[in-house]
Amino acid sequence: MGTRGREIVGQHVDHILKLLNQAYASEWLAYYQYWLGAKLIKGPMKDAVAAELTLHATEELNHAVLVANRIIQLGGTPVLTPAKWADESPCAYDAPADPYVAVLLDQNIAGEQCAISAYKGLMDATKDIDMVTYNMALTILEQEVEHEEDLQSLREDLDLMVKRGSR
Ligand code: FE
Ligand code: FE
Ligand code: MG
Q: Does the pTM exceed 0.85?
Protein backbone atom coordinates (compact mmCIF):
# COMPACT_ATOMS: atom_id res chain seq x y z
CA MET A 1 0.00 0.00 0.00
CA GLY A 2 1.19 3.52 -0.78
CA THR A 3 0.18 5.82 2.06
CA ARG A 4 -0.04 9.11 0.16
CA GLY A 5 -1.59 7.32 -2.82
CA ARG A 6 -4.31 5.99 -0.52
CA GLU A 7 -4.74 9.30 1.27
CA ILE A 8 -5.75 11.20 -1.88
CA VAL A 9 -8.70 8.84 -2.31
CA GLY A 10 -9.92 9.96 1.11
CA GLN A 11 -12.94 8.55 2.87
CA HIS A 12 -14.19 6.79 -0.27
CA VAL A 13 -11.51 4.13 -0.14
CA ASP A 14 -13.59 1.38 1.51
CA HIS A 15 -16.43 1.76 -0.97
CA ILE A 16 -14.02 1.77 -3.91
CA LEU A 17 -12.28 -1.34 -2.55
CA LYS A 18 -15.65 -3.09 -2.33
CA LEU A 19 -16.39 -2.30 -5.99
CA LEU A 20 -12.88 -3.34 -7.00
CA ASN A 21 -13.22 -6.70 -5.27
CA GLN A 22 -16.57 -7.29 -6.98
CA ALA A 23 -14.92 -6.57 -10.33
CA TYR A 24 -11.99 -8.81 -9.40
CA ALA A 25 -14.28 -11.77 -8.66
CA SER A 26 -16.18 -11.16 -11.91
CA GLU A 27 -12.97 -11.21 -13.94
CA TRP A 28 -11.97 -14.65 -12.65
CA LEU A 29 -15.45 -16.02 -13.37
CA ALA A 30 -15.39 -14.47 -16.85
CA TYR A 31 -11.95 -15.97 -17.45
CA TYR A 32 -13.13 -19.44 -16.50
CA GLN A 33 -16.41 -19.21 -18.42
CA TYR A 34 -14.53 -18.24 -21.59
CA TRP A 35 -11.70 -20.68 -21.08
CA LEU A 36 -13.92 -23.70 -20.52
CA GLY A 37 -16.42 -22.68 -23.19
CA ALA A 38 -13.60 -22.57 -25.74
CA LYS A 39 -12.73 -26.19 -24.90
CA LEU A 40 -16.29 -27.54 -24.98
CA ILE A 41 -17.72 -25.62 -27.94
CA LYS A 42 -19.64 -27.48 -30.66
CA GLY A 43 -21.40 -26.47 -33.86
CA PRO A 44 -20.88 -24.25 -36.92
CA MET A 45 -17.97 -21.77 -36.86
CA LYS A 46 -16.67 -23.40 -33.71
CA ASP A 47 -12.98 -22.87 -34.56
CA ALA A 48 -13.37 -19.13 -35.18
CA VAL A 49 -15.50 -18.69 -32.06
CA ALA A 50 -13.19 -20.83 -29.90
CA ALA A 51 -10.22 -18.67 -30.94
CA GLU A 52 -12.07 -15.50 -29.89
CA LEU A 53 -13.23 -17.06 -26.60
CA THR A 54 -9.66 -18.14 -25.81
CA LEU A 55 -8.32 -14.66 -26.54
CA HIS A 56 -11.00 -13.07 -24.39
CA ALA A 57 -10.13 -15.48 -21.56
CA THR A 58 -6.55 -14.19 -21.53
CA GLU A 59 -7.79 -10.59 -21.65
CA GLU A 60 -10.11 -11.19 -18.67
CA LEU A 61 -7.20 -12.67 -16.75
CA ASN A 62 -5.21 -9.54 -17.52
CA HIS A 63 -8.10 -7.43 -16.17
CA ALA A 64 -7.88 -9.48 -12.95
CA VAL A 65 -4.17 -8.57 -12.76
CA LEU A 66 -4.89 -4.84 -13.15
CA VAL A 67 -7.69 -4.90 -10.58
CA ALA A 68 -5.69 -6.96 -8.03
CA ASN A 69 -2.77 -4.54 -8.31
CA ARG A 70 -5.05 -1.57 -7.68
CA ILE A 71 -6.71 -3.28 -4.68
CA ILE A 72 -3.29 -3.90 -3.15
CA GLN A 73 -2.15 -0.32 -3.88
CA LEU A 74 -5.17 0.96 -1.95
CA GLY A 75 -4.36 -1.27 1.03
CA GLY A 76 -7.07 -3.85 0.36
CA THR A 77 -6.95 -7.61 -0.06
CA PRO A 78 -8.17 -9.30 -3.25
CA VAL A 79 -10.84 -11.96 -2.55
CA LEU A 80 -8.79 -14.72 -0.97
CA THR A 81 -10.70 -17.80 -2.01
CA PRO A 82 -12.35 -18.91 -5.28
CA ALA A 83 -15.31 -20.17 -3.22
CA LYS A 84 -16.20 -16.49 -2.68
CA TRP A 85 -16.06 -15.41 -6.34
CA ALA A 86 -19.71 -16.14 -7.10
CA ASP A 87 -20.87 -14.37 -3.91
CA GLU A 88 -18.81 -11.25 -4.60
CA SER A 89 -19.43 -10.93 -8.32
CA PRO A 90 -22.34 -8.76 -9.48
CA CYS A 91 -22.26 -10.73 -12.76
CA ALA A 92 -23.57 -14.28 -12.81
CA TYR A 93 -21.38 -17.21 -13.76
CA ASP A 94 -23.11 -18.99 -16.64
CA ALA A 95 -21.83 -22.56 -16.79
CA PRO A 96 -21.22 -23.76 -20.37
CA ALA A 97 -23.52 -26.74 -19.80
CA ASP A 98 -24.85 -26.52 -23.37
CA PRO A 99 -21.80 -26.29 -25.67
CA TYR A 100 -23.69 -25.12 -28.79
CA VAL A 101 -21.96 -22.08 -30.32
CA ALA A 102 -25.01 -19.80 -30.20
CA VAL A 103 -25.70 -20.61 -26.55
CA LEU A 104 -22.10 -19.92 -25.51
CA LEU A 105 -22.08 -16.67 -27.48
CA ASP A 106 -25.33 -15.51 -25.86
CA GLN A 107 -24.05 -16.36 -22.37
CA ASN A 108 -20.82 -14.48 -22.90
CA ILE A 109 -22.59 -11.49 -24.50
CA ALA A 110 -24.71 -11.25 -21.33
CA GLY A 111 -21.52 -11.45 -19.26
CA GLU A 112 -19.90 -8.62 -21.23
CA GLN A 113 -23.00 -6.47 -20.84
CA CYS A 114 -22.86 -6.97 -17.09
CA ALA A 115 -19.12 -6.14 -17.07
CA ILE A 116 -19.78 -2.95 -19.07
CA SER A 117 -22.37 -1.83 -16.50
CA ALA A 118 -20.05 -2.72 -13.61
CA TYR A 119 -17.10 -0.70 -15.00
CA LYS A 120 -19.41 2.20 -15.83
CA GLY A 121 -20.47 2.05 -12.16
CA LEU A 122 -16.84 2.01 -11.03
CA MET A 123 -16.12 5.04 -13.23
CA ASP A 124 -19.12 6.91 -11.81
CA ALA A 125 -17.95 6.11 -8.27
CA THR A 126 -14.36 7.25 -8.88
CA LYS A 127 -14.82 10.28 -11.13
CA ASP A 128 -13.05 13.30 -9.57
CA ILE A 129 -12.28 11.10 -6.51
CA ASP A 130 -9.83 8.40 -7.51
CA MET A 131 -8.23 9.16 -10.87
CA VAL A 132 -6.01 6.09 -10.88
CA THR A 133 -8.92 3.67 -10.48
CA TYR A 134 -10.98 5.75 -12.91
CA ASN A 135 -8.29 5.49 -15.55
CA MET A 136 -7.91 1.73 -15.01
CA ALA A 137 -11.69 1.23 -15.21
CA LEU A 138 -11.74 3.18 -18.50
CA THR A 139 -8.96 1.01 -19.94
CA ILE A 140 -10.84 -2.15 -19.00
CA LEU A 141 -14.20 -0.76 -20.13
CA GLU A 142 -12.78 -0.09 -23.59
CA GLN A 143 -11.86 -3.75 -23.85
CA GLU A 144 -15.22 -5.00 -22.52
CA VAL A 145 -16.98 -2.87 -25.13
CA GLU A 146 -14.76 -4.44 -27.78
CA HIS A 147 -15.54 -7.92 -26.40
CA GLU A 148 -19.28 -7.35 -26.62
CA GLU A 149 -18.99 -6.19 -30.22
CA ASP A 150 -16.74 -9.11 -31.21
CA LEU A 151 -19.23 -11.62 -29.83
CA GLN A 152 -22.29 -9.90 -31.26
CA SER A 153 -20.73 -9.81 -34.71
CA LEU A 154 -19.88 -13.52 -34.50
CA ARG A 155 -23.46 -14.17 -33.41
CA GLU A 156 -24.70 -12.26 -36.44
CA ASP A 157 -22.46 -14.25 -38.80
CA LEU A 158 -23.69 -17.47 -37.27
CA ASP A 159 -27.33 -16.46 -37.73
CA LEU A 160 -26.73 -15.52 -41.37
CA MET A 161 -24.98 -18.79 -42.02
CA VAL A 162 -27.67 -20.93 -40.38
CA LYS A 163 -30.47 -18.99 -42.13
CA ARG A 164 -28.88 -19.21 -45.61
CA GLY A 165 -27.95 -22.87 -45.11
CA SER A 166 -31.56 -23.79 -44.45
CA ARG A 167 -32.94 -22.20 -47.65
FE1 FE B 1 -12.86 -8.20 -18.08
FE1 FE C 1 -14.73 -9.02 -21.42
MG1 MG D 1 -11.82 -9.93 -29.18
A: yes
How far is it, in rounded angstroms, from Cα 1 to Cα 144? 28
52 alpha carbon to ligand 3 midpoint, in Å? 6
Mind listing the pLDDT tens digit of every residue in the chain (167 residues)? 788 888 888 899 999 999 999 999 999 999 999 999 999 999 999 999 999 999 999 999 999 999 999 999 999 999 999 999 999 999 999 999 999 999 999 999 999 999 999 999 999 999 999 999 999 999 999 999 999 999 999 999 999 998 887 76
Contact 116, 148 (CB under 8 A): yes
Question: Which residues, chain by chain, have CB under 5 Å from ion ligand 1?
Answer: 27, 60, 63
What single DSSP character describes residue 80?
-
- Domains in the chain (CATH in brackets) are 9-30+38-165 (1.20.1260.10)
| Cα 136 to averaged position of ligand 2 atoms, centre (Å) | 14
Closest listed ligand to the CA of 53: 3
Distance, CA 165 to ligand 1 centroid (Å)?
34
